[in-house]
Structures are given as structure tokens and as C-alpha cells.
């Protein structure tokens, strides 16, 4: 979460004329330093995919993404856009509540603009979910 007193770098916009978003924002206006985060899967430090379920893999992929973001000096609420790739959209949707709980526990209720895309497979055949994001920091990157 953002530290008290820090400037806001992203503004979430959800027009009343559009359907109420659940788990995403319709638009995000951003200013500051842009950080492009590479796709993250449930790969552990040794390079193995961990987790047997989509929820477990989502949790690990999110931790990996947030760790990469933190290394840039960013925080979870700096996320402006995220794309979720999954090899089984039906399974992902069936576990949406559990995945949402993982998100809220780790990130809170600030949602970036999001897209979910079903794919035939990911780079690592054991991976069932991959997260790619763009963040906007209001500070300069660490030296």
C-alpha cells in the first residue's frame, strides 16, 4: 500500500455511464515514471513452476510481479494496467472468488485497468496463469 503523504501517481476512473466494474478499473490516468513489468508465472527462485491450482499459481505469479515492482521502488497501488493470461478460462472463472481474495489480501481494493485473455499455452507448459503489468511511479527510479 502507498505510504502516508506520498503523491498519487494513478487515478482510477469508472464512469457511471458504464457497468460497475468488479475487480478492475475501466480507465487509469497516470503520471510519473512508467515501469513495464514482464510476464510473471508461478515460477519459484529455482525456476520451477509451483502450485497445482490456478489460485495457487495466481498467488505465486502475483508475488513475483509485486517483488519485481518493489525492486523499482513501486508499490501495489502504482499498478495502472494488468493483463492476465490463462490456459483455462473456465477454471479461472470458477475460482474467481478465491483469486479475488488473493488479490485483496496482497494488493487491496485498488484495481488497475485489467484484461483477461485465454491462451492455448504459456512459455512454461506447467504454467496455467501469467501476469503482465504496467505501473506508474511518482518518483524517480532507485539509483
Description:
- The mean pLDDT is 88.
- This protein has a single domain (34-137), classed as 2-Layer Sandwich (60s Ribosomal Protein L30, Chain: A).
- The strands form two sheets. Strands 3-6-4-5 form a four-stranded mixed beta sheet. A two-stranded antiparallel sheet has the order 1-2.
- The radius of gyration is 15 Å and the shape is globular.
- The longest helix has 18 residues, at 54-71.
- It is 24% helix and 27% strand.
- It has 143 residues and is an alpha+beta fold.
Can you lay out the helices and strands and say which pair or pack?
Blueprint: E1 10-13, E2 27-30, E3 33-40, H1 54-71, E4 79-86, H2 89-94, H3 96-106, E5 113-118, E6 129-137
Parallel strand pairs: 4-5
Antiparallel strand pairs: 1-2, 3-6, 4-6
Helix pairs in contact: 1-3
Based on the model shown, name its key terms:
6 strands; four-stranded mixed sheet; alpha+beta; 143 residues; 60s Ribosomal Protein L30, Chain: A; two-stranded antiparallel ribbon
Brief synopsis:
By secondary structure, the chain is of the alpha+beta class. It is 24% helix and 27% strand.
Output the CATH homologous superfamily: RutC-like
* H/I helix tally: 3
> Proportion of β residues?
25-35%
* Spatial extent as radius of gyration: 15 Å
Question: Can you give the mean pLDDT?
Answer: 88
| Structural domain count | 1
Q: Could you state the order of secondary-structure elements as H and E?
A: EEEHEHHEE
Regions with little confidence, pLDDT below 50 for 5+ residues: none
Protein structure class:
alpha+beta
Here the CATH topology equals 60s Ribosomal Protein L30, Chain: A
Percentage of residues assigned to helices: 10-25%
By CATH, the architecture is named 2-Layer Sandwich
Main pleated sheet: 4 strands, mixed
Strand count: 6
Give the overall silhouette. globular
Q: Give me the side-by-side strand order of the main sheet.
A: 3-6-4-5
CATH level 1 class label? Alpha Beta
* Ends apart, CA distance between termini: 22 Å
